[in-house]
Design a protein that fits this description.
Rossmann fold, Tyrosyl-Transfer RNA Synthetase, 2 domains, 7-stranded mixed β-sheet, two-stranded antiparallel sheet, globular, binds tryptophanyl-5'AMP
């Protein structure tokens, strides 16, 4: 136990991500969480239904799962699943948040699923001392624009806002809460006697959308939750409790973290703006942040770089292209090889990333404007 503690160099909970997560650490995280790697057999099985694989699956950005085989068994029997994911509105949206959402949209398109998208406007209000209820409402609106801008199907996508839909959620949340003890949430989230009681209750609200569609349809419907791996602890509790209430355990598919700009292998966070690209950043802001702050795997002089080459494995600009901004496999391979051989310089790699992000954001920001008129279509009508 002591030995394990000393060796562990990361901490991943929904409320704190610390340390550098490289491939070896993700392996250890899978063991610690008890989640399964996505293997070739599972990829082939998904491909049978989707015809092609999203690059985030092929590249291991989505790397782990719970019960995907069960979900596909049900699907193949004609028992369709719904999708569930969410965003706690505690600030503007950054590009890391978009990783699970872009993939969720792909799943919606390929499997024709309903999507339930939760905006827990209670969660971070309770967890962050300095965040007011009014600020959370403003961010809820801003974050909804980002989700809509990604192109989800308005007929099949239902936004749930915890305070607005309290009448729908609360009767189910208390059934969940009654089955969770304080010692469980202490162990899972690291709570102490000083934690406020709203935070202690919150995880029961995050469980509800995993079975709400079953409650509404009065029959059990399988659920798949795409998420960043930090959110898994909530659903460990969910999966423990739902069978006790007569519902299926949700299946889960986990993504790695898009790192912050300054350090490879961390999680992009809302607290360091220089390390983060917001969906509302201007082209100049993007350029400035990348050129100045992106952690580089290049050598310190051009001569040395030409001779020794760069290290794409630790280069944040390369990693962001690989994770998100360069879906073309041939192009990413060429960039990898050219950078590694020294043919491509660090400045050139960063300039390419700036171009890609700015093209993406130009489109996204246009869609965000259009989304303002669509919000009403997405909010679930009770
Ligand atoms: P939140 O608002 O912190 O984050 C929203 C989603 O974005 C993922 N994420 C990231 N993924 C990749 N790289 C990053 N750097 C990165 N940063 C954040 C998160 O893992 C999450 O999937 N409690 C939740 C809100 C929620 C939720 C859900 C999330 C409610 N219901 C169901 C997933 C599924 C939260 O605070 O997420």
């Amino acid at each position: 136990m002591e030995k394990e503690k000393k060796e562990k160099s990361f901490e991943v909970t929904p409320y704190e991500v610390k340390g550098v997560l490289d491939d070896a650490e993700y392996e250890r995280l899978m063991k610690e969480f008890g989640i399964n790697p996505i293997n070739k057999q599972l990829l082939d099985r998904i491909k049978k239904h989707t015809k092609e694989l999203h690059f985030m699956l092929n590249r291991g950005v989505f790397f782990a799962h719970r019960d995907m085989d069960w979900l596909l068994n049900e699907y193949e029997k004609g028992n369709k699943f719904f999708l569930y994911t969410g965003r706690a509105p505690s600030g503007e949206t950054h590009i890391g948040h978009l990783v699970p959402w872009v993939f969720t949209k792909w799943l919606q398109d390929k499997f024709g699923c309903e999507l339930w998208f939760q905006f827990p406007d209670d969660e971070k209000f309770m967890f962050k001392q300095n965040l007011s209820y009014e600020e959370v409402q403003k961010y809820t609106y801003e974050n909804m624009l980002d989700v809509i801008a990604l192109g989800f199907n308005p007929k099949k996508t239902h936004f749930i806002l915890d305070t607005k839909h309290a009448g729908l959620l609360y009767p189910e949340a208390i059934k969940v809460a009654k089955k969770i003890t304080f010692s469980t949430v202490k162990a899972v989230f690291g709570f102490t006697n000083d934690t406020n009681i709203g935070s202690i209750f919150y995880t029961s609200m995050q469980t509800v959308p995993a079975f709400l569609p079953s409650v509404l349809a009065k029959k059990n419907i399988p659920c798949l939750i795409p998420l960043g791996v930090d959110q898994d602890p909530h659903f460990r509790i969910t999966r423990d409790i739902l069978p006790k209430l007569g519902y299926y355990k949700p299946a889960i598919i986990h993504s790695k973290f898009l790192s912050g700009l300054k350090l490879y292998g961390g999680k992009m966070s809302t607290s360091d703006s220089d390390s983060t690209i917001w969906t509302t950043d201007t082209p100049e802001q993007v350029k400035k942040k990348i050129m100045k702050h992106a952690f580089s795997g290049g050598q310190s002089t051009i001569e040395e770089h030409r001779k020794k080459g760069g290290n794409p494995d630790i280069d944040v600009a390369y990693q962001w292209l690989y994770f998100f901004f360069e879906p073309d496999d041939k192009k990413i391979k060429k960039i990898h090889d050219d950078y590694k051989s020294g043919k491509m310089l660090s400045g050139e790699l960063k300039a390419y990333l700036v171009e890609k992000i700015n093209a993406f954001l130009k489109e996204h920001q246009k869609n965000r404007e259009l989304a303002k008129k669509q919000i009403d279509k997405f909010i679930f009508k009770v």
